[in-house]
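Write out this protein's structure.
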Amino acid sequence: MNFLRTVGLQRIADYLKLSLEGSQFLSQSNLNLSGGRNIVFSQTEAKDTTTLTAQCGTGGVFGYYGSFWDSTTQTAASTTTAYVVTINTSDGHDGVTVEGGSRITVANKGIYNLATSIQVTNNDTQAHDATFWIRKNGVDVTQSASIITVPSTHGGVAGKYLFYVDLVQQMNAADFLQIMWAADNTNLQLQTIAAGVSPTHPLSPSVIVSVTQV
C-alpha cells in the first residue's frame, strides 16, 4: 500500500498514524490500523512515498492450529464398547493442544476444522466394519459418524483401510473434541506400521490429526 506525498493530496502520508501490535507508530495521518493476530505491518519512507507492508508474522500462520499423531497400535477388546482414539505426539501447535491423551482442546473461541486420517487393519479372513464419530465436550456430535468396511487378509497380510474425515466446529475457549471408534470384530485395530527399508519410507502412524482455525 503506497501513499503518494503531494501537496494536492494534503500530504496524506504526513498525517499517518498506525497502531501496530500494541505499539503506536507515528507518521502523519488520522488513520488507525491494527495488525491483529499474526499480522505485522511495516512502514518505509522514500523521497515522496510512504509504503505500508502487511505480512504474516509469528509461525507463518494467521490462525491457531495443531498437528498431532499417535505412534501406538490401538485395539478394541469388545464389539459393544466405544473407544476413545488416543493421540500421543505433536508436530507443532499454537492455541490447540491434546489434553489427557485424547482431548483436542482449543484455547481461543473460533471456528476450527478437524481433519483426521486413521489406519485401520483387519487380521481376520472376513471383511469387518468400523465406525468413527466425534464427541464435543463429552457429548456425541450429531450426524458425525462414518462407517467403513476393512478388507480381509490376503496372502497372510492384514487388510488395510485408511479412514479420512473433515469436520468444522464452532468452538469456545477450553472446548475439546475427541475421536471415537467401535469395531464389529476384535480383529480390527488402529495400527502403526514401522518404517520401511525396501524402499525406504517413514513410519506410518495409526492416527494423524490436524486442527486449523478457519
